[in-house]
User: What shape does this take?
Amino acid sequence: MRDEEKDQRARTGLSRWALGALSGALAAFAALAVAELVAAVVRPQSSPIVAVGGASIDATPAPVKDWAIRHFGTNDKLVLELGILAVLAVAALALGVLAVRFRRVGTAGVLLFGVVGAVAAVNRPDSVGPADMLPSVVGAMAGALLLYVLVGRLTAVKPSPAPAEAATEGADSPLRADWDRRGFVLAAASAAAASAAVGVVGRSLNASRGRGAVTSRERIVLPAPRSPARPVPRGAGLRVPGISPFVTPNGDFYRVDTALVVPKVDATGWRLRIHGKGVRRPTTYSFDDLLHRELIERNITLTCVSNEVGGPYVGNARWTGVRLADLLAECGVRPPSRGGPADQLVARSVDGMTIGSPVEELMDGRDAMLALGMNGEPLPFQHGFPVRMVVPGLYGFVSACKWIEDIELTTFDSYDPYWVKRGWARRAPIKTESRIDTPKPFARPKSGTVMIAGVAWAQHRGIEKVEVRIDDGPWQKAHLAAEDTRDTWRQWSMPWKATRGGHTLTVRATDRTGAVQTEKRTRTIPDGASGRHSVVVTVD
Assistant: This one.
């Protein structure tokens, strides 16, 4: 019987550790659910997942961040959140097992995670103060309490029916065989159900917080622009299967930013303040103020600095907004070339992002604007509603502030914006680039005539020509689609008499200044990738 007793104790011990791990998982679930509910009351950005995720993004080295964008694209934030949840899950399981033997230590570990979340929340750039700590603190307390209770059920001893039976159990141990199974099951099931309910309520409340913003967007009617975009010329869009459309639909337009939660700003309460060095008349504008000014409409191609050679983070849209230069001049701002003391405009987003742009370029006559509309409708939330900056010719990280709420005039020497602090350049004009859209890499077209086609861009300079090379052969001039403006991309195509075998197709563009797209490959950091796009195909 001695060996049987040992086997029974071993099985009981293993099951107890497993139930301890389950207790840790339930405690983490409860903590996150309660934190979600409290964040719905405070503000969604104070959620521990959002706060820790944002802090992780800020602390991530630029090369790693660029790698994530390159490999995960617009899903990089989802991958980060899943990674945080995975780490929390492992930690929760470990703390649950630890609590079986050291009950107070395990619960203290849960509280420690709450401290981490609270510190991250209160130190975010958009923090509103100590209230941002509440979701992490209250959630951690709920999780710690639940873990303490569940582990207590694992170590609780039911009354023995007879002294003789009790004597056979041996010395007291946290791994006794006569623990309160019924009490544990009831407590665990109740906790799981309650946590799920709390989480659903929290999500529902979070969603309701954005309804005012959604309603304000739905009620906006963009007036006809005083200066409309000219009609897109015939032939600007080539009818080649696989080529990017001339105008990128809103749903397909790339999104690269650091916001784990897309801000939902009510346009009726939105304000923009313009102030700083050389601003003789500091002014605050409402959304209606901008909406009733003279609006312009322009087709402008935007490009993200994280776009690799041949990458997808470039898109063309029709933007409607207010000339930024007019607003700055109204506030008494002069560019450096006319004696203005400020050479940098720092735009601040509602989520704390800072973007620095050169004042000279913003006021040199290009169609830099505060955009209110995109492709004929108010800005989508993910693209900056209610107002964002759009500046042709500059990469987004030095121009395209979304959810903007503040403009400060300063100098490059006195202030480094978000991306500059992380190793990116202060100034970043978009480089001359081109891309092969079709055929795709590793495609297997049939021999005969194959259409090679794609897009090229050199915003604010314009594209003069595009050339294609097959393997190591001579450069051949491609057919250029009609140009809309120098601020938009141009489609191109070239028929190719494809022969059987493997081939490398390479493209290069020349802009209107005569500069030829370089073949030298550089990384996206610090001011954008360069090189020539090529694809390898096998002709059957």
Summary: Confidence is low (pLDDT under 50) at residues 160-175.
